[in-house]
Amino acid sequence: MKYKNVILLLFVIILFAFSFPVFAAENSHQGASEHINLGEILSLYSTIPFIGILLSIALFPLFAPEFWHHHFGKVSAFWATVITVPLLIIYKGAALHSFLHIILTDYIPFIILLWGLFTVSGGILLKGSLRGTPIVNTIMIIIGTILASWMGTTGAAMLLIRPFLRANNYRKNRAFMVVFFIFLVANIGGSLTPVGDPPLFLGFLHGVPFFWTFHILPHMLFAALILLAIYFALDTYYYRKEGFNKSQIEDGEKEPIGLVGSYNFIFLAGIVGAVIFSGLVDWGEVNTLGIHRSIQGWTSDGIIVLMGILSLVFTPTKVREDNEFTWFPIQEVAYLFAGIFITMTPCLLLLLAGTKGALGFIVGAVKEPYHYFWVTGTLSSFLDNAPTYLTFFTTALGKFYTGMPEPIAVSKLIAENPIYLMAISAGAVFFGANTYIGNAPNFMVRSIAEEAGTPMPSFFGYMLKYSIVFLIPVFILVSFIFF
Fold it and tell me: CA-CA distances (angstroms) from residue 154 to 368, 421, 432, 463?
């Protein structure tokens, strides 16, 4: 009961403290209709709940782990309520439209895709005596990095994380292995095709050719090879430090390596095909609760759900049990990212307002290719990288080809100023590895790893011990060499 009382009191205090400056700053707009542009009139106060949920994700697991484990969904709902109540009271239909838009066009497709990939990959079991030596681990990460561009970072990560963890269950130091897995398989590996990562798919929908993203192959290889070399050195160091020898590794009965539930690859291909299909056809739009969304988008979601259901029907329960499959990781992601998407809404509206919004000083300062790389990347580390990509993609088009129809402007940008699009694309994909929330599979990989007994660093620990130490220097080199 004491937790409930504390939460209720905290809710009232924060809601009042947050509502007062919002009401004061936006009082003149109380009679506004749905036609107002919220991004142009919202104040920076509207970003407080987003900061609040990020701090909750970072601090509660450190200082109140038991409370967090049982109540993370309530904390997420709390911050979502803190932002929705004041904005719905002030802006009514305009605010409702914005929240419904991000739920129907972003969150629902996001969570359906994650659920489908999580469910199907959970039915594929890699059996056998696979032991995680530095060479074996590095090869597994390389395979995952290659697969990420063709089956999505989420698909590759969900397919390989459990075998990767099982192969290393005898190792003492495992956290760094999972972190580098997140760096490469869950993020950087997905930079070569629109299937790899959502922002690139968004570019594909706006006229960027499917294979154009291979232009950032040199950037991807450069970053991946450096990180793989660092990983191999770290793994070798810890492996030797732990004192394993060949007889210890090979001890026990050998079991041939093999796949169980390989028919799930058919369902996996169905999911990837559904994603590609949604970008190749145009069946018009349908109005759902006042939000226009493409028919092919809803169809794609339906196909993905069908693939997940078929996987559940055809995969024996024993296979999922042997794969240590549970629903907790996807449940955690669904609850937390619901709050993240809702509290993120004002941040995205401010960005999409360009120089007319409260974050206009950021958008207006972006001029050179390396600006696009770092600003797109930094924001993608904490916000949804798809709309962040679209914001600066649109900024680049406006910078060079103001007033031109989008198809012509995109063609000209690719032909005359491709470095800007490369910077935006690389920044949106690469920097997703900087935080647990930078890309959806990051949080799922972390959750699966912790469930399997691997102690993972905290939100800030991940950034301070790994991202800043390993990723940022690599990104600085990428910036100097390519942008």
Answer: 31, 23, 12, 21
Instruction: Determine the Cα–Cα distance for residues 71 and 65; give it in Å rounded to an integer.
Output: 10
All structural domains of the chain with their residue ranges: 2-32+44-91, 103-244+255-482
The two structure tokens encoding residue 97:
């439209």
CA–CA distance, 408 with 390 (Å, rounded to integer): 17
Q: Residue 8 has which token pair?
A: 């209720």
pLDDT tens track for 374-385 = 999 998 888 777
| pLDDT on residue 66 | 85
What is the b/e burial string over 177-213, where b = at least 16 CB atoms within 10 angstroms of the residue's CB?
A: bbbbbbbbbbbbbbbbbbbbbbbbbbbbbbebeeebb
Centroid of chain to Cα 308:
20
What's the rounded Cα separation, in Å, for the pair 432 and 418? 22
Quote the pTM value.
0.82
User: Using an 8 Å Cβ cutoff, are 43 and 22 in contact?
Assistant: yes
**Most distant pair of Cα atoms in the chain: their distance:** 76
The helix (run of H) or strand (run of E) holding residue 133 is: none
Cα separations in angstroms, 132 against 52, 129, 170, 180, 269: 39, 10, 8, 14, 28
Q: Which amino acid is at 30?
A: Q
**Could you write out the DSSP letters of every residue in 253-288?**
-----EEESTTHHHHHHHHHHHHHHHHH----EEEE
Secondary structure class of 403 (helix, strand, coil): coil
pLDDT at 177: 95
The predicted pLDDT at position 249 comes to 55
Q: What is the rounded distance in angstroms from the CA atom of residue 481 to the CA atom of residue 265?
A: 39
Strand 125-127 and strand 258-260: pairing?
antiparallel
- The answer to whether the CB of 141 falls within 8 A of the CB of 167 is no
Contact 184, 226 (CB under 8 A): no
Question: Two tokens at 68?
Answer: 């967090």
Distance of CA 445 to the CA centre of its chain: 11
Closest CA to 177 of 247, 259, 237: 237
Distance, in Å, from the CA atom of 7 to the CA atom of 75, rounded to the nearest integer, reads 8
> CA-CA distance, 360 to 8, in Å (whole number)?
36
Q: Taking a C-beta distance cutoff of 8 angstroms, is the pair 147, 124 a contact?
A: no
Query: In whole angstroms, how large is the CA radius of gyration of the chain?
Result: 23
Below-50 pLDDT ranges, the chain? 1-2, 6-9, 12, 15-16, 19-33
Nearest to 342 by CA among 68, 78, 91, 144: 78
Helical spans, DSSP H, in 64-131: 65-91, 93-102, 108-121
- pLDDT value of residue 266: 93
| Burial tier of 272 (Cβ tally within 10 Å: 0-12, 13-18, 19+) | middle
Q: What is the pLDDT of residue 226?
A: 96
Tracing tokens 């430090």 back to the chain, one arrives at 241
